[in-house]
Specification:
three-stranded antiparallel beta sheet, globular
Length: 306
């Protein structure tokens, strides 16, 4: 999907997690303009997304189930018309890779044959597993601003005086995206981390003080689980070593980190170039369990009582 300059600005702003936030300081007689109102909204919005990013992480809370559906042709269709194959994303809620809420309140659908037919063949070839004659796709979601409720405004550009309008509201929306996924990516560790902008530390254990060395040894002697928890604390303690922040370098990288994977789709086909014309639901499989989930206390209580 195409991105506007406003979309890119919002993505960059939401990914900037190391900028100290500022709220508006109201005083009697102070002249405040449009920027102050926007800053007030941004302050509260970014505080919420940062809380969700750090305390919960990216993942599905409930729902957002992806499934395949075969739709028979209408009775008026010519004989031999094939059934349409659709991918459906059901209602649900989640948190995307930048900590923003994803809310799907009704089922969304995608005509899979139309999507395949509109893709560049090189792109589809990147997701083709030759050994297993399978085309791998991935469905993901991310938060998306949606300007609505256009109203007249004062013209600010030449020749806009007769019909100058602007959105009076920004609705919360969701961008559902599908892309070819290379066989190497499918075979590797699932393509997500709890904090997409902050990868896990690699390499040897960070240096320990004498007291920390003693504490870790005691934890290891007590039980393997206690030792594992202590080593995890050490990792968290050094999370920001060397800066710790890893802002996306390109727009493609930024979009990749913002997306929340929902499902992997596999299409059995000998040739991705011709799959659009021969597609049936029987050759399409969906894996919803490859996605990340975000367990909460409320969820665990609900599932425990089921």
């Amino acid at each position: 999907m195409s991105l506007t300059a406003e979309d890119i600005a919002t993505l960059n702003q939401d990914a900037d997690l190391d900028e100290p936030l500022r709220r508006v300081a109201y005083e009697a007689g102070m002249l405040l303009g449009l920027e102050a109102t926007r800053d007030e909204q941004v302050y509260h919005r970014r505080r919420l997304t940062r809380q969700q990013y750090w305390l919960h992480g990216a993942g599905t809370l409930a729902g957002l189930r992806v499934r395949v559906e075969s739709v028979p042709p209408p009775a008026s269709a010519p004989a031999g018309t094939a059934a349409r194959v659709r991918l459906l994303v059901g209602p649900g809620i989640g948190i995307d890779g930048l900590g923003r809420e994803i809310l799907v309140h009704e089922t969304h659908c995608l005509d899979l044959a139309d999507w395949l037919g509109a893709q560049d063949q090189t792109t589809l070839a990147d997701g083709f597993d030759v050994a297993n004659t399978r085309l791998n796709l991935r469905i993901s979601a991310r938060y998306q601003d949606c300007p609505v409720a256009a109203q007249p405004v004062l013209a600010r550009k030449l020749n806009l005086g007769t019909d100058a309008v602007a959105a009076s509201r920004i609705a919360d929306a969701v961008a559902l995206e599908i892309e070819a996924e290379s066989p190497a990516a499918v075979a590797a560790t699932p393509p997500f981390t709890p904090w997409p902008l902050h990868g896990p530390l690699d390499g040897p254990m960070p240096p320990l003080s004498e007291a920390e060395t003693i504490a870790l040894a005691a934890a290891d002697l007590e039980s393997a689980a206690a030792g594992a928890r202590m080593r995890m604390r050490l990792r968290l303690l050094h999370l920001f070593d060397g800066g710790g922040w890893s802002p996306p370098g390109t727009l493609s990288d930024l979009l990749g980190r913002a997306r929340l994977p929902l499902a992997r789709v596999a299409i059995q086909t000998p040739d991705p170039a011709t799959v659009a014309g021969t597609l049936t639901a029987a050759v399409v499989s969906v894996d919803n369990l490859s996605r990340p989930f975000v367990p909460t206390a409320a969820q665990l209580a609900h599932l425990g009582g089921a």
